[in-house]
């Protein structure tokens, strides 16, 4: 309504409302290197495509006269009350698309009450993002360093700064073959982007021969060496509990047996995710594995989902297939690129409105009551 009413006064939205055009709109305002870093996938892009194709295989079957005028999008995930089943996925190095980076994202998220998940590879520190996020709900995503004391320090800082849930990303213990970035010879971390959590960490700094202010390249290489190649074992998960008393979520689960192992290890949740198709080329579409995983472990831990979510209908489908909430990746980064905090808010408000209308028009009233019976596989 707001947008149509503005139209009466001759105004059109500052930025497209079409989820299919967000990527192109971002391409217009970004240099090819950062744009390629955000939009790109692993290898030949087969997993990026598979994520979308998986959504296309499911169709919503709308019901009529269900009195869906009064709808509820609100839900609770791992003790976090949320206005909608939506979180902002952890995305590192956000200053490559906008100077305000994660600070803008944190402000936009807080203004809508949507939880953000801060990446370890953030361009702003854990504490600065928390300050920008204010009273907003926030979770912290860990790239798990080899050095246990550095790890403990990051976790205690996140806890002190009000992050309530720990998300441990398992699928990026080394970076994939990403041809777009390789062709550009572009890795933002080597320019010092996405290093704020590490460089501001007292324990990490104590590991350096020289302060990062005096020798930034050595500090960067030291950090990359600490997180790259760190494929920890399942038996190391309990050690995280020593430094984190809140819920722990494993991100990057694609196999039903891994989901079971996460539950066996006492984890509180998982994110069914293939990192937006950025890690294993030719991997299964993330939505394709969601139903069996939700059926196997949905009663033992909370199942979240990401990779390929673009529309309200996508969220309805993921929830109907067993996700409790979804994480949004690239679309909000495109909003950030276009308009900083306002751009992120524009994308989120559009997606939430689209979700609200799709829930109602398909004859549903509460997102917590969606079930596979509202879909048909086509
Ligand atoms: C990511 N993602 C990611 N995940 C994570 O756990 N830590 C991180 O630092 C990053 N960084 C990152 C940067 C960029 C530019 C992108 C696009 C993605 C993955 C992210 O959390 C999420 O899993 C995917 O983005 C979801 O897929 P869609 O929504 O982008 O299709």
Structural features, described:
With 378 residues, the protein is an alpha/beta fold. It is built from 16 helices and twelve strands. It has helices at 2-8, 22-29, 32-39, 46-56, 101-112, 126-133, 148-160, 179-184, 196-199, 202-206, 216-227, 237-241, 256-264, 286-297, 312-320, 330-361; strands spanning 58-60, 75-77, 80-82, 86-88, 116-118, 138-142, 166-169, 248-253, 269-272, 302-305, 325-328, 375-377. It has an eight-stranded parallel beta sheet. The chain has a two-stranded antiparallel sheet with strand order 1-12. Helix 7 links the parallel strand 6 and strand 7. Helix 5 (101-112) packs parallel to helix 6 and helix 5 (101-112) packs parallel to helix 16. The longest helix is centred in the last third of the chain and has 32 residues, at 330-361. The chain is globular and about 70 Å long. The two termini are 33 Å apart. The structure holds ligand FNR. Residues 11-378 form the FMN hydroxy acid dehydrogenase domain. Keywords: Flavoprotein, FMN, Oxidoreductase.
Give a brief description.
This is Alpha-hydroxy-acid oxidizing protein. The protein is of the alpha/beta class and 378 residues long.
Topology:
Elements: H1 2-8, H2 22-29, H3 32-39, H4 46-56, E1 58-60, E2 75-77, E3 80-82, E4 86-88, H5 101-112, E5 116-118, H6 126-133, E6 138-142, H7 148-160, E7 166-169, H8 179-184, H9 196-199, H10 202-206, H11 216-227, H12 237-241, E8 248-253, H13 256-264, E9 269-272, H14 286-297, E10 302-305, H15 312-320, E11 325-328, H16 330-361, E12 375-377
Parallel strand pairs: 4-11, 5-6, 6-7, 7-8, 8-9, 9-10, 10-11
Antiparallel strand pairs: 1-12, 2-3
Helix pairs in contact: 2-16, 5-6, 5-16, 13-14, 15-16
Ligand FNR binds at residues 37-38, 51, 89-92, 119, 121, 141, 169, 251, 273, 275-276, 278, 306-309, 328-330.
């Amino acid at each position: 309504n707001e947008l149509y009413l503005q139209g009466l006064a001759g105004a059109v939205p500052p930025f497209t409302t079409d989820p299919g055009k967000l990527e192109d709109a971002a391409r217009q305002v970004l240099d090819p290197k950062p744009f390629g870093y955000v939009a790109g996938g692993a290898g030949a892009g087969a997993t990026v495509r598979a994520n979308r194709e998986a959504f296309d295989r499911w169709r919503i079957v709308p019901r009529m006269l269900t009195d869906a005028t009064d709808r509820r999008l609100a839900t609770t995930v791992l003790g976090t009350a949320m206005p909608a089943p939506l979180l902002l996925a952890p995305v590192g190095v956000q200053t490559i698309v906008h100077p305000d980076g994660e600070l803008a994202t944190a402000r936009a998220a807080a203004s809508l009450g949507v939880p953000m998940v801060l990446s370890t590879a953030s361009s702003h520190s854990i504490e600065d993002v928390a300050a920008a996020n204010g009273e907003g709900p926030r979770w912290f995503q860990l790239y798990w360093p080899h050095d246990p004391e550095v790890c403990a320090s990051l976790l205690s800082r996140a806890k002190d700064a009000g992050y309530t849930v720990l998300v441990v990303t398992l699928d990026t213990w080394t970076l994939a073959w990403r041809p777009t970035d390789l062709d550009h010879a572009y890795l933002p971390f080597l320019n010092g982007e996405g290093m704020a959590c590490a460089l501001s960490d007292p324990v990490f700094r104590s590991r350096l021969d020289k302060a990062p202010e005096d020798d930034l390249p050595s500090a960067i290489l030291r950090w990359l060496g600490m997180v790259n190649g760190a494929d920890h074992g399942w038996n190391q998960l309990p050690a995280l509990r020593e430094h984190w008393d809140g819920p722990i979520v494993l991100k990057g689960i694609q196999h039903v047996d891994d989901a079971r192992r996460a539950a066996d290890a006492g984890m509180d949740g998982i994110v069914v995710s293939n990192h937006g198709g950025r890690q294993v080329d030719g991997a299964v579409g993330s939505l394709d594995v969601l139903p069996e995983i939700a059926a196997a472990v949905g009663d033992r831990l909370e199942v979240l989902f990401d990779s390929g979510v673009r529309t309200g209908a996508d969220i309805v489908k993921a929830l109907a297939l067993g996700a409790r909430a979804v994480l949004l990746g690239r679309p909000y980064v495109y909003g950030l690129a276009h308009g900083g905090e306002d751009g992120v808010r524009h994308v989120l408000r559009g997606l939430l409105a689209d979700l609200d209308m799709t829930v109602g028009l398909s004859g549903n009233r509460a997102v917590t009551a969606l079930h596979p019976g509202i879909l048909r596989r086509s």
